[in-house]
Amino acid sequence: MFTSPEAEARPRLRDQARERLRAEIMSGVLAPGALLDDEQLADRLRCSRTPVREALSDLAHLGLVEFRPNRYTRVTLPRREELVPTLQALGLLFGGVVRSTIGELDDRERAALFRRIGLVLDCMAMPTWQWGADAVTPVYRSFISACSNPLLTSTLSSALDGLTFRLRHDDVRAALPWEHIRNGLVALRVAVDCRDGRLAERASCTIHLLPDPDRART
């Protein structure tokens, strides 16, 4: 059975629309809470409404778009009450990966991760610092790249943008204990430097406001 050219092109258009909109959401071109009209988006992206609707559905599964039937489709609006649960969800996803991958990093990967964590610490030291995924996401992606489990890698990659985006709330600096988080980042940098997976897991729990795993085990 032959597939029509239109059917073959449709997944590609859907993927292109999804990646274009995902990039615009993550970069702030489409701000949190921005309304998304599929007809207007189709005109702007120069495609039909069907791949746009499919792309929006994909982005909803990633946590970047939210629907209210017969009311609106919009970019996800981060909520203050979700800040701590979101940070903890990131920690639960990455804690075990952090511990298991630290020892697997080669010297180049370890040096790059060490610098990336240092960049986050430098950003946090600036008086005008505001939360943003630009400095933080490369740290998470370093662990994703080092993870040898393809199913886990896929899960982490799919969840990362949606979770980090939910931390973009105007009150994030007041709502989270940043000195506590900074202490965890310092400990994680030390763990990377000395290839200590156990310390890395404990540091990750500190960063993500989770209980110390060693105390939980005892």
TrEMBL record:
Entry keyword set: DNA-binding, Transcription, Transcription regulation
Chain ranges of the HTH gntR-type domain: 11-78
Highest taxon in the source lineage: Bacteria
One Pfam family per UniProt: GntR
Protein name, UniProt field: GntR family transcriptional regulator
